[in-house]
C-alpha cells in the first residue's frame, strides 16, 4: 500500500496527544518494537519494558515493511518509495545505527520482506518489476531475482523455505514460486484487492485479506487451492496469525477495528475497536470520537499475550491483550506508522 499522507491538523494532533505524559504502561514485556514511520522516512525503536522510545533512525523513502533477523541484531527495511535505484536500509539494532544501504539494481519498489532460514539472506517482493529479490544482507548483493509474473505487494515463505507466496492487489490473486528451483509455480485467485497475507505456524495454510472484496481466503499449501472464504468488514488490509496458530487477526482499516477469527472453525469471534472512552482511560492516550485511526500493520509478540496494531492516521500503535481481546496500551509514534518488527534484544 502506498504511503498515506498525514491529514490530521496540528490542533487536532495536539488534542490527541495532550494526555501523553500520563499514559499508562502496565504490560512490561521483553523485547524491542521497531515501528516504521512512512511519512517521516524513519524507524523508531521502543522498549517494551517501558513503552518509551529509545531511538529514531533514518531509512530510505517510504519505509513500508521491516524484518529483524532471528538473532535480533539486524533490521532490514524495504524503502518502498525509493527509485533509481530502489534500496533496502540495514540497521544494527544493538548499536542503534544504520550500517548500509543495499541497491537492488533493476528490481523496483521493494515491499514485503522476510528473512530466509539461514538468517543472512532475505526475500523481498519487488513490486514494480514483478519479481522476488533474494538479497544477501552481509555482502549487500542481490543473489537472484525470481520472475513472479504478478506485481506482489506482500510475501510469506513456508517454514522449510521451499515456497514463497506473494499477494497482488491489482490482480486479486496470490502468486506462488518454488524457492529451490527459482521458478514461478501458480497464480491463485482469491478476491479483489488481495494484500494482507500470512502463513500458519505449521505451514499448512496461507490466509489472505482481500481488502476490496471484504473477505479473507484460506489457501491449502499442499494443494494450492482456496478451501474457504469468510466475510471481513471493512477493508481487511493485513492478517496475522497468533503465535499458537489458533487465531487470526485482521485489521479492518475502514471500520477501525481488528477482527479475530477462530482458525479451526473459520468463524469471526471478536471485533476489537481502536476507539473508545474506556480505551482512552486505560491507556492514558485519548483519541477523539471523530478520529479515523486506520489500523493497518499487525505484529504478534512471541509470548502470544499481546498484539501490536499500527494506526496509520492516528500516529499510535495500539496494544491488544490477546487473553481479554481488548486494547490495553497505546504508543505514540512518528507520522503514518505501518510496518513493524520485533527484536528479542532489550535495547536502551
Give the SSE map.
Blueprint: H1 10-16, E1 32-37, E2 42-47, E3 53-58, E4 63-68, E5 74-79, E6 87-92, E7 97-103, E8 110-115, E9 121-126, E10 131-136, E11 141-147, E12 154-157, E13 163-168, E14 173-178, E15 183-189, E16 194-199, E17 205-210, E18 215-220, E19 225-231, E20 236-241, E21 247-252, E22 257-262, E23 267-273, H2 277-283, E24 295-300, E25 306-311, E26 316-321, E27 326-332, E28 337-343
Antiparallel strand pairs: 1-2, 1-28, 2-3, 4-5, 5-6, 6-7, 8-9, 9-10, 10-11, 12-13, 13-14, 14-15, 16-17, 17-18, 18-19, 20-21, 21-22, 22-23, 24-25, 25-26, 26-27
From the spread of the alpha carbons, the general shape counts as globular
CATH class: Mainly Beta
Count the strands?
28
Content of β-strand: over 45%
Side by side, the strands of the main sheet go 3-2-1-28
Order of helices and strands: HEEEEEEEEEEEEEEEEEEEEEEEHEEEEE
Count of individual domains: 1
Average pLDDT level: 93
By oligomeric state, this entry counts as single chain
Q: Helix proportion of residues, in percent?
A: under 10%
- Summarize the biggest pleated sheet: 4 strands, antiparallel
